[in-house]
Structure formats: C-alpha cells, structure tokens
Design brief:
Layout: H1 2-9, H2 13-21, H3 26-33, E1 38-39, H4 40-49, H5 59-71, E2 75-79, E3 87-91, H6 93-124
Antiparallel strand pairs: 1-3, 2-3
Helix pairs in contact: 1-2
Domain HTH hxlR-type: 12-117
Protein name: Transcriptional regulator, HxlR family
Keywords: DNA-binding, Transcription, Transcription regulation
C-alpha cells in the first residue's frame, strides 16, 4: 500500500490505480460482490466458476486479496463473532463506485476480444 501512496504522491493516478488493482482476483472479487454480501466460500466458488485454466485457488492467495481490498477501502469484512466462524464481505461506498469502471473494462474486453477472435479465424482460413 505504501507503493500506491507514493505513486499517488508523485502525481500519477494511473500508477496508483494500477497498484491498487494489481492481483489476480481483485477485479473479479469486486465484480462478484456487486450483487450483495458474500461469505469466503461463496467468493471462492464464484472465482472458480469463472476461471479458465487452474481450478485451484490457494486459500492464502484469496485471503491476501480480500485483506488488500479491505485495507484499500473497497470492501468491508464483517465478523459475526460466532462459532463456527461466520464472516461476510461486502462492497463499501468506494467499492460500489468502482463497479462501473469494471463494467467499462468488461465491455471493452468483450468488444475487442470478439474482434481479436474474428481476426484469428480469418487468418486461419
């Protein structure tokens, strides 16, 4: 997080933004939480459902991503203090304001990936 602050301090919001969202699952976690609070296992299942390639997400990696998103103020972690443990994650106001940005990235990707696939098909003919 210190790197994101130093990038922001040097006047480069793009570098600060890039540092904030760096990580394999952060964008997908925020996107998945737009529909409401989820527990750890629900987030993990959602990530596995959308994954291409490895069907294994190391618990340590997912926990690290969730902790970073919490520290960045994009998500909130609510511990119910019961046994067995019950913890939910939800978007903060800042996290909700980030959803349209991810939607724009998703739309751009859908549009341009479709073009790239069409170009590859033409080249293969």
């Amino acid at each position: 997080m210190a790197n994101a602050k130093s990038a922001q301090a040097c006047g480069c919001p793009v570098a600060a933004f890039q540092k904030m969202i760096s990580g394999k699952y952060k964008l997908r976690i925020v996107w998945d939480l737009q529909d409401g609070p989820k527990r750890y296992s629900e987030i993990r299942t959602g990530l596995l459902r959308g994954s291409s390639g490895s069907a294994v997400i190391a618990p340590r990696v997912l926990s690290r991503e969730l902790k970073a998103l919490t520290e960045q103020g994009l998500i909130d972690r609510k511990d119910f203090g019961v046994v067995p443990p019950k913890v939910e994650y939800r978007l903060t106001r800042k996290g909700k304001s980030f959803v349209p940005v991810i939607a724009a990235i998703r739309n751009w990707g859908a549009r341009h990936l479709a073009e790239a696939n069409a170009d590859q098909m033409v080249a293969a003919e």
